[in-house]
Structures are given as structure tokens and as C-alpha cells.
Amino acid sequence: MTPQRLVGARPEPAFEITVDGRPVPVVPGQSIGAAMHAAGIRSWRTTRFEGRPRGLFCGIGVCFDCLLTVNGTPSLRACSTQARPGDEVTTS
Ligand code: FES
């Protein structure tokens, strides 16, 4: 897109995904992790031995702290998986 076209650009309409059955609004282009963070969901996993909360940490796909399941596909990184309309996210 050229800079001149960007001047008149408007955001696409927002949509929803569900996280453990809860509706979560998404701005087009957001990652699932960004949408969850914006909705106040800050942790959704725990560490194996001490049960400490985990969610977004690095935010760039390196640490794997943000794993979740999207539409039945397990072990996706929330921080680097783009949300799509109707995505069903489960965290356990
Ligand atoms: S937050 Fe580190 S891989 Fe997603």
C-alpha cells in the first residue's frame, strides 16, 4: 500500500474469537496473545513444577511461554499466531 493510500485507510471491522468459551474482541491484525492481553487475560498456563503463572513473556516467539490450542491445533504460540474471525482458543 502506498503512503498516499494509507492516508485514507480505515481499520477493518473488529471481530471476535473465543477463549475457553469467553468472547474476546480482536482488532484485525492482532495476534491472539495481543487480543487476550487487551481483554485482561494475562496468564493461561502454569509451570510444570511450581505452578507459576505463564502467558506472554517475550512476545516475539522465542520463549514458548504462551502456548495454547487454536481450533484444535495444540502448542501454538499466542504471540505469533494471528487471530482470525471465529477462532476457538483453549488454554488447558
Ligand atoms: S511470548 Fe514468548 S513465545 Fe510467545
From TrEMBL:
Q: Which UniProt keywords apply?
A: Oxidoreductase
Keyword NADP in annotation: no
- MF GO annotations: iron-sulfur cluster binding; oxidoreductase activity
Q: Which residues form the signal peptide?
A: none
Superkingdom of origin organism: Bacteria
UniProt xrefs under Pfam families: Fer2_4 (PF13510)
- Which InterPro entries does its entry note? 2Fe-2S-bd_N, 2Fe-2S_ferredoxin-like_sf
Name-wise, this protein is: Putative molibdopterin-dependent oxidoreductase YjgC
* Lineage, opening ranks: Bacteria, Bacillati, Actinomycetota, Actinomycetes, Streptosporangiales
